[in-house]
Specification:
- The protein has 775 residues and is an alpha/beta fold.
- It folds into 4 domains: 8-99, Phosphorylase Kinase, domain 1; 141-180 and 404-566, Rossmann fold; 198-399 and 638-645, 3-Layer(aba) Sandwich (Dimethylsulfoxide Reductase, domain 2), CATH 3.40.228; 661-774, Barwin-like endoglucanases.
- The chain has 26 helices and 33 strands.
- The strands form 9 sheets. A 7-stranded mixed beta sheet has the order 5-4-20-19-18-6-7, sandwiched between helices.
- Strand 1 (48-53) and strand 2 (62-68) form a beta hairpin.
- Substrate binds at residue 741.
- It comes from Tenacibaculum caenipelagi.
- This is Nitrate reductase.
Length: 775
């Protein structure tokens, strides 16, 4: 970033050059410019370089931030980081610029007579605490809630959970990772009984084949994708893109295979059929380490508020499972999925080859899915049947969207049913948390309340009256958005929003708190490979901006919980992290001490006897294994993983005569999620200034739509007009369209469907029916 001593135009020009190089590397995967970043950094002065994890996605790249005269003026990849090895994507290279937008929030704002009025931080915090007390008194403890984020730091999420679950006594704590990672969590829990991937990024250096399940990795995780491409140059590995649209990942892959939306379920089952049919099952591994289960299929799609669902697993035999798969021969699945039997057999042969190490990688495709938990289970099934799991290069690996969706949501437990080390439903877990939190165990309610979609439905109904939203932008990201935007505006609702910039979410707030961003405060993130990374405060936040952690602590003290929130302002992050580590003090999940995090570019958990664990459940690498076998899936009582019988089922809403197209939504490389930070970065905003709708060229030709023409999309929820993108970056299959969601001026989620996986409660943003017309 530029300062008063650095010429602004020169800086932006240099960063534009760097942006072009990095964009090229993503547009044409395989081209990376290691070392070039050094030539384009501001010259002169003595920059003080400090390490941090990148502010953006869940890859968790290590960066070095250059500080000069109290400002962050430059950023480069950290060559010591084993994650990115000195590289960054286009967003990472510009990350420091996100802190210096002209419309940065610097003072608290309180809505009075319909207008926002500046006030002091003390007055704003006093008002929040008094409103919480009043709401609890009038409507009960479950009328207040907090909605956080996978962008929360670990201390942010920890104190939020402690305040609401431990002190106030409500489980109304959710985070936006419910919208992106919940299916990964429930998939892991149902298959292994414990959350988070067993492998790590080093698997990339060992695998022979990479299968990308609905994952545009070239744009969404470009630094990791560059590592795949590097391995192809070095070792000739194969990359298979399995997706519903053609993307930059497809162009870079060795083979691109397109499937019809939702039918990935059927294809995964067909691969399992082929593995069994051809005798590729690792019989010894399966007999020793796996059980077979089937669950309920009468699940619904989360569309009815009164629909109650609880999966009841039933043990089955291998022969039962084999018989079930007879409905999923490649020839039968070809008719369902549009994937040729030949291509299904092609993928199955790689998984089944005992001489090939296979890494499966996925993100939002299988997760934002009305059967997201099932889809995660099915990918694990393939790896379990072949025994290709928990060894270097053999890895089913769920990638993460946000910098601390793992660290702050999955590990800290900022979901309604979770505690930092367990679940609220378990008495022993409640007692353990209560002891650490110094609260009566009765304070912790044993019953979960609302997952994210249901939390906003409760706000609509009036069951929730107070909501504090931190570090997220739900008035852009919620599905069927208009319903929940209207809900927040209803009489008798009080909304607090903590953020760094004005957003559509701050527009519905009664109080807006200015937050310190990233390196303006101290904290930790946890990335996709279980790597906890520390960053120090490097610069001062603007105006009265305050860290989200300390905002929560100040309100907690005002609510009368001084005893539980005793932390000293100067040392509170160290005190909180030390306390938090007590929740994970065991071989299965021990966290590295703070001094280790400060000295290193992150450290993976479980951290046992001074060493990180790279591959879990494998006794060769994991000290938590204790059954005397080569593998121990210790999340389950019997130490065995589960191979699930999960059928193909159609989507919640499919195209019909009135709405004949599929609508898919997602991200772009230049912008991160809702763009509230990246749109303040001039280079990135100019590169991608607005949203668009991708059309298949033949569909566009038939409707006489050219690139840039206005297109009207209509669903049963509403309509939106966007410019057409034809034969540009991505190409949807016929009768499908794709729209990115970063543009707050073109809110695609106004028309998406709020169906969700009934197990994970994660919405399906990838599939609903839409009518497409030239506007």
């Amino acid at each position: 970033m530029y300062t008063s001593t650095t010429n602004r135009r020169s800086f932006i020009k240099k960063m534009a050059v760097l942006s072009a190089m990095t964009a090229a590397a993503t547009m044409f995967p395989g081209i990376m410019f290691a070392g070039e970043q050094e030539k384009n950094l501001p010259k002169g002065g003595n920059l003080d370089w400090k390490k941090a994890p990148c502010r953006f996605c869940g890859v968790g790249c290590g960066v070095l931030v250059g500080i000069e005269n109290g400002k962050a003026v430059a950023v480069k990849g950290d060559p010591k980081s084993p994650v990115n090895k000195g590289l960054c994507c286009v967003k990472g290279y510009h990350s420091v610029m996100a802190m210096y937008g002209k419309d940065r929030l610097t003072k608290p704002l309180v809505k009075k007579n319909g207008k926002y009025v500046e006030t002091s931080m003390k007055e704003a915090l006093d008002l929040i605490a008094s409103k919480m007390k009043e709401t609890i008194k009038d409507h009960g403890k479950d009328s207040v809630s907090i909605y956080g984020s996978g962008q929360w730091t670990i201390p942010d999420g920890y104190v939020a959970s402690k305040l609401f679950k431990g002190c106030i006594g409500t489980n109304n704590v959710e985070a936006n990772a419910r919208l992106c990672m919940a299916s990964a969590v429930t998939g892991f829990l149902t298959s292994f009984g414990i959350d988070e991937p067993m492998g790590c990024y080093e698997d990339i250096d060992h695998a022979d084949v990479f299968v990308l399940w609905g994952n545009n990795m070239a744009e969404m995780h470009p630094v990791l994708f560059s590592r795949l491409l590097d391995q192809r140059l070095k070792r000739g590995v194969k990359i298979i893109d399995f997706a519903t649209r053609t993307t930059r990942t497809s162009m870079a892959a060795d083979k691109s295979i397109l499937f019809l939306p939702q039918t990935d379920l059927a294809v995964a089952n067909a691969i399992c059929y082929e593995i069994i049919k051809n005798g590729w099952v690792n019989k010894s591994f399966v007999e020793k380490h796996c059980n077979f289960n089937k669950g309920l299929t009468n699940m619904g799609y989360g569309l009815e508020d009164k629909y109650k669902f609880k999966d009841k697993p039933e043990k089955i035999s291998f022969q039962d499972y084999k018989k079930f798969l007879e409905d999923y021969t490649p020839e039968k699945v070809e008719k369902i999925s549009g994937v040729s039997a030949k291509d299904i057999k092609y993928m199955a042969a790689y998984y089944g080859d005992p001489n090939k190490k296979v890494m499966s990688l996925w993100c939002m495709g299988p997760n934002q899915h009305s059967r997201g938990t099932w889809m995660n289970n099915l990918i694990y099934n393939i790896h379990l049947l072949t025994g290709k799991i928990s060894t270097p290069g053999n890895s089913p690996f769920s990638l993460t969207g946000q910098p601390s969706a793992c660290g702050t949501v999955r590990e800290v437990g900022t979901l309604t049913h979770k505690l930092p080390h367990g679940v609220v439903m378990n008495k022993e877990h409640r007692e353990f948390a209560a002891k650490i939190w110094d609260v009566p165990v009765e304070n912790i309610d044993p019953k979960p309340t609302y997952h994210t979609v249901e939390m906003f439905r409760a706000l609509d109904r009036g069951d929730i009256r107070f909501m504090w939203i931190q570090v997220t932008n739900p008035m852009v990201t919620m599905p069927k958005l208009k319903r929940y935007r209207d809900a927040a505006k209803k009489e008798g609702r009080f909304i607090v929003v903590s953020d760094v910039y004005p957003t559509p979410t701050t527009d519905i707030a009664d109080v807006i708190l200015p937050s310190a961003m990233w390196i303006e405060r101290e904290g930790m993130y946890g990335n996709s490979e279980r790597r906890t990374q520390y960053f120090e405060q490097m610069i001062q936040p603007p105006g009265e901006a305050m860290s989200d952690t300390w905002q929560l602590i100040e309100v907690a003290k005002r609510l009368g919980y001084e005893k539980q929130f005793y932390y000293n302002e100067d040392t509170h992050i160290e005190e909180i992290y030390t306390e938090y580590r007590k929740h994970h003090d065991n071989k299965k999940h021990n966290m590295a001490p703070l001094e280790v995090l400060k000295e290193n570019p992150g450290m993976q958990w479980p951290y046992v006897e001074g060493k990180p664990t790279q591959w879990r459940f494998n006794s060769k690498y994991d000290p938590a294994c204790s059954n005397g076998e080569d593998f121990h899936f210790y999340g389950k009582k019997d130490g065995k993983a589960i191979i699930w019988q999960r059928p193909y089922e159609p989507a919640a809403e499919e195209p019909d005569a009135e709405y004949p197209y599929w609508l898919n939504t997602g991200r772009v490389v230049e912008h991160w999620h809702t763009g509230s930070m990246t749109r303040r970065i001039p280079v990135l905003h100019k590169a991608m200034p607005h949203s668009y709708v991708e059309l298949n060229p033949e569909d566009a030709k038939r409707m006489q739509i050219k690139n840039g023409d206005k297109v009207k999309l209509t669903t049963r929820r509403g309509e939106i007009i966007l410019p057409a993108s034809v034969n540009q970056r991505g190409v949807p299959a016929p009768m499908q369209v794709f729209v990115p969601f970063f543009d707050e001026n073109m809110l695609i989620n106004d028309i998406t469907l709020d169906s969700f996986c009934p197990i994970s409660k994660e919405p399906d943003y990838k599939k609903c029916a839409v009518k497409v017309e030239k506007a």
